[in-house]
Design goal:
Elements lengths: L7 E7 L2 E7 L6 H13 L10 E6 L5 E6 L4 E2 H7 L2 H16 L3 E5 L1 H10 L7 H8 L7 E3 L10 E4 L2 E4 L10 H12 L14 H9 L4 H18 L5 H17 L2
Antiparallel strand pairs: 1-2, 2-4, 3-4, 5-8, 6-7, 8-9
Helix pairs in contact: 3-7, 5-8, 6-7, 6-8, 8-9
Length: about 260
């Protein structure tokens, strides 16, 4: 298993029990993975659980790794497919409550946004989407704590409890980044990228539960597009095509 970072994920079962090991993709990524481990280890919420970090170290190639609890649940994407609307709304409400309660912690995100967009080396056809991300007064958005990659695949339901996994040290910290990941699912159908896309009334209902002021919603939509742009350099052609088509769809849907 691996994600867009290239980190390897292993399931381990031995005399010490079951656990998951995440291993850095390369030596340069070691420090990032350490920060992600610390973010996961320090995470604390009355509504949401996490896999506890068990140990960390370096393998024979000098790659950093850490072991964590194995949570034998299903992704929130699967939970939505298999459960009724009241049950889904109950879980989603807790996720949204967690995001909304993250307080502002510092300066605005303007510099981080500009630096990230400038760093993206993409074909000319993506310039329109980069300009869309820049066309916003980012001085309005202050930093706040966030998970960093809160797609439905990184939310696990086990024994009716909600777990967050795969915390990410993102290019900036704002809870609107977590809202943008909700939109990445509800508008961009991220968890459908390797499956046939189909209309899902449950997604419409979940979208209606996200109550943001318009300036926040516009910021989250731009962060959504920026999320997708950031994925492209790490993606194969099939996934690039999916991302490009979804960006076009998202902007059409939200004119």
């Amino acid at each position: 298993m691996s994600g867009h970072s290239g980190c390897q994920i292993f399931y381990i079962s031995d005399k010490y029990g079951s656990r998951v090991r995440k291993v850095s993709s390369n030596l340069k990524y070691n420090e990032r993975l350490k920060r992600q481990m610390v973010k996961q280890d320090l995470f604390n919420s009355s509504k949401i659980k996490k896999p506890n970090v068990i140990r960390s170290g370096f393998d024979e190639d000098g790659l950093f790794y850490f072991d964590m609890e194995y949570i034998n649940g299903i992704s929130f994407f699967e939970y939505i497919e298999k459960n009724d609307i009241p049950s889904i709304k109950n879980k989603f409400e807790k996720i949204l409550e967690y995001i909304s309660e993250n307080n502002e912690i510092g300066d605005n995100v303007l510099l981080n946004i500009k630096q990230k967009i400038k760093s993206l080396q993409l074909p000319d056809k993506y310039d329109f989407y980069k300009d869309y991300c820049l066309d916003y007064d980012w001085n309005k958005i202050n930093k706040s704590y966030c998970h960093g990659d809160l797609t439905f695949e990184n939310i696990i339901i086990f024994d009716e409890n909600i777990y967050f996994i795969d915390f990410l040290d993102s290019f900036t910290d704002t809870k609107l980044l977590d809202y943008s990941k909700m939109y990445q699912e509800l508008y961009g159908f991220w968890s459908f990228r390797n499956k046939p896309k189909k209309f899902n009334i449950k997604y419409v209902i979940l979208d209606e539960m996200i109550l943001l002021e318009e300036y926040q919603r516009q910021a989250a939509l731009r962060l959504l597009i920026l999320n997708l742009l950031r994925i492209i350099p790490y993606s194969k052609q099939k996934e690039c095509d999916f991302v490009y088509s979804q960006m076009k769809y998202i902007l059409e849907k939200n004119k």
